[in-house]
Design brief:
Blueprint: H1 23-50, H2 56-77, H3 89-113, H4 116-123, H5 126-138, H6 144-162, H7 166-195, H8 202-225, H9 234-259, H10 264-270, H11 273-286, H12 292-310
Helix pairs in contact: 1-4, 1-9, 1-11, 2-3, 2-8, 2-9, 3-7, 3-8, 4-11, 4-12, 5-6, 5-7, 5-12, 6-7, 6-12
Membrane topology: Multi-pass membrane protein
Protein name: Inner membrane transporter yiJE
Keywords: Cell membrane, Membrane, Transmembrane, Transmembrane helix
């Protein structure tokens, strides 16, 4: 399965023929992939901390709008065009809604109810659900390995639900539901993008999808959450800038540059470091629990994603 899904990715399946990257570019590709995944992993506790300063939809949508503008400038500086063919706008809007808008909004709401580490683990299940959806939608065989991958991901979710007391578990249910719905919708968008690719180069396609997906989330947040930007601390603005510049612009620029040098399946497996970094960074920076349920769920999910990406 041509899976291009990082921890918090945009999946664009351009109709250009793929080529094996030259050997000398592999090292650069791995370095770029490493930078992107480290940034995305760290952004999970960053987003959780920002909830003290901004409401969830605002903090998830607004940085993405600014990131798309920065990426647009980067694309133009490279001499590429941002123009999308007229017949591609329907797909762009649909994929932006599934893989960006709902992802950003629902994951922001999930962070309200869950620790950042557990949200990162649930978000990392995207490739597993995509592998399952590819069976009825793309006719890809649901092999034994894919069934095992789905079972392991479900096992990880069960561990997160039942790892604590019943009362705490029920308190987590809204957050788990938001995260799983976000992951499923993202997987649906990924499979649809594979079935009907966008006739646009990856980076310009990402600019449009990030912008189109994040703008309504940010608008809803500003209109209904009434964020108080004047009351934000210096640290809050610094973390907001990190989400905008590093998580959004630099992270995606490194990701797509890595895809130009590495096979997509290799890049997808490489992003398994995202939930690992997210869990560890959340434990260190936020003091979130890192016990048997979290470690067990992380191991099950990461292993299941690796199997799904390779099956």
């Amino acid at each position: 399965m041509d899976q291009r899904v990082p921890g918090e990715p945009i999946m664009v399946s351009p109709p250009y023929p793929s080529t094996q990257p030259p050997h000398e570019n592999r090292a650069v590709g791995y370095a770029l992939l490493f930078v992107a995944t480290i940034i995305w992993g760290i952004n999970w506790p960053v987003s959780k901390w920002l909830l003290h300063e901004l409401p969830p939809l605002t903090l998830r949508g607004l940085p993405g709008v600014f990131s798309s503008l920065i990426l647009a400038g980067f694309v133009l500086a490279k001499g590429q065009s941002l123009r999308a063919p007229r017949g591609e706008w329907g797909k762009l809007i649909l994929y932006a809604a599934l893989m960006v808008g709902f992802w950003m909004g629902l994951m922001g709401l999930s962070l309200v109810h869950l620790p950042a580490s557990e949200t990162a683990i649930l978000g990392a299940t995207i490739p597993v659900w995509a592998a399952g959806l590819a069976w009825p939608m793309l006719g890809e065989q649901l092999s034994v390995l894919r069934v095992i991958a789905i079972a392991m991901a479900v096992g990880g979710v069960v561990l997160l639900i039942g790892g604590d007391s019943i009362s705490v578990s029920w308190e987590k249910m809204p957050g788990i539901a938001y995260a799983l719905i976000a992951a499923l919708l993202f997987a649906l968008g990924a499979v649809l993008a594979k079935r009907r690719p966008i006739a646009l180069r990856p980076l310009p396609g990402a600019v449009w999808q990030i912008g189109l997906g994040c703008f309504p989330v940010a608008l809803i947040g500003i209109l209904f959450e009434h964020p108080h930007f004047g009351g934000m601390s210096t640290l809050g603005w610094a973390l907001f800038g990190f989400s905008t510049i590093f998580q959004g612009a630099i992270g995606y620029a490194c990701w797509f540059a890595a895809l130009e040098r590495l096979p997509a399946s290799t890049a997808a497996v490489g992003t398994l470091i995202v939930p690992v970094i997210g869990v560890v960074a959340s434990a260190i920076s936020l003091g979130e629990p890192l016990g048997i349920p979290q470690i067990g769920a992380l191991v099950l999910t990461v292993t299941g994603v690796a199997i799904a990406a390779r099956s």
